[in-house]
């Protein structure tokens, strides 16, 4: 162990946690942050145990997880320091402890000044993964796009971690449309598709997770909320604001022009297939949902999410015939890329 890594073990590991709901366009933001010096884009680290270790899915660097030398070093450290853990038990424990039905209890515990998610011995292994990553990468900030607020609450309750929150919100009609599309994961080298959600369910989860994120962290100076549509409309200044919030005030952003970034591969462990994107990626609005989404689906989303739509500034609940919505809603990569970048 180097002197630097010994020193860093005494400091909380810096984590930027993307909180909110799925398919909100966080993948490209995670990838861009991961290009900055002193930053590591982990993708959705809550899936490390299941999708990374157990299922051996593709790392963002292009090889299966078990063949990635970085993750090999990290897991060696974790096994040394937490020899009793099993990835299966950690993955199963997270699914159970972070379930939707437990959210009221988490909120009650948080209000009472306790850790929102009760501790278990396996949390030591979870925290050690963040610590090992940061130590191996000379104290890098871990940029985790897991999004699930209960997992963010678990991390935020650990004294070994210093967590900042980035809340990316996207129009729920766009996210509901994304949840219905069939997209290959590119994770297993087969034809596996990303999971789909019914419109009512994705709408309810959108409202739950975004409102919960706002309630839990909205008044903290560690919290920044960004509308995905604003990022797409004006990428570079928005990314500058995000980078400053994440502690990278003087960072050199990878923009080659106002809407194009150059991305090197990351070692993201899970997430939207856009995490595999590399090279020049053009950030541009894609309003496909405004043309292709059925009127009934749009009505369902708008009805279920109406109060939260107003809360987050989506004030036009539906599109009149032949009229385009005011805000662009999705982001697509450049012509060479094959994946959409929403997640
Ligand atoms: Zn890798």
UniProtKB/TrEMBL annotation:
InterPro entries: Gal/GlcNAc/GalNAc_ST (IPR051135), P-loop_NTPase (IPR027417). One of its GO terms (biological process) is sulfur compound metabolic process. One of its GO terms (molecular function) is N-acetylglucosamine 6-O-sulfotransferase activity. The lineage of its organism: Bacteria, Bacillati, Actinomycetota, Actinomycetes, Micrococcales. It holds the Pfam family Sulfotransfer_3. Residues 327-343 have a biased composition (Polar residues). Residues 319-343 are annotated as: Disordered. Keywords: Transferase. This is Putative Sulfotransferase. It comes from the Bacteria.
């Amino acid at each position: 162990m180097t002197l630097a890594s010994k020193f860093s073990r005494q400091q909380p590991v810096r984590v930027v946690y993307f909180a909110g709901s799925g398919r909100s366009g966080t993948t490209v933001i995670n990838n861009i942050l991961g290009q900055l010096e002193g930053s590591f884009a982990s993708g959705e680290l809550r899936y490390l145990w299941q999708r990374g270790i157990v299922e051996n899915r593709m790392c963002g660097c292009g090889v299966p997880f078990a063949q990635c030398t970085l993750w090999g070093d990290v897991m060696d450290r974790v096994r040394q320091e937490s020899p009793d853990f099993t990835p299966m038990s950690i993955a199963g424990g997270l699914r159970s402890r972070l379930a939707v039905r437990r959210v009221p209890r988490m909120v009650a515990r948080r209000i009472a000044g306790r850790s929102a998610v009760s501790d278990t011995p396996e949390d030591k292994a979870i925290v050690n993964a963040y610590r090992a990553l940061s130590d191996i990468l000379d104290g890098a900030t871990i940029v985790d796009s897991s999004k699930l607020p209960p997992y963010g609450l678990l991390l935020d309750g650990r004294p070994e971690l210093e967590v900042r929150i980035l809340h990316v919100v996207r129009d729920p009609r766009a996210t509901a449309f994304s949840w219905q599309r069939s997209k290959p994961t590119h994770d297993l080298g087969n034809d596996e598709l990303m999971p789909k959600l019914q419109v009512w369910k994705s709408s309810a989860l959108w409202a739950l997770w975004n409102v919960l994120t706002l309630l839990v962290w909205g008044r903290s100076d560690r919290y920044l909320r960004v509308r995905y549509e604003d990022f797409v409309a004006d990428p570079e200044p928005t990314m500058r604001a995000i980078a400053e919030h994440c502690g990278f005030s003087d960072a050199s952003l990878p923009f080659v022009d106002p809407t194009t970034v150059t991305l090197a591969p990351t070692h993201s462990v899970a997430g939207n297939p856009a995490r595999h994107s590399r090279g020049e990626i053009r950030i541009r609005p894609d309003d496909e949902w405004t043309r292709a989404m059925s009127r009934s689906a749009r009505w369902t989303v708008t009805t279920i999410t109406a109060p939260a739509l107003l809360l987050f500034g989506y004030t036009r609940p539906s599109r009149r015939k032949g009229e385009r919505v005011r805000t662009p809603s999705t982001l697509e990569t450049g012509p060479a890329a094959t994946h959409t970048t929403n997640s």
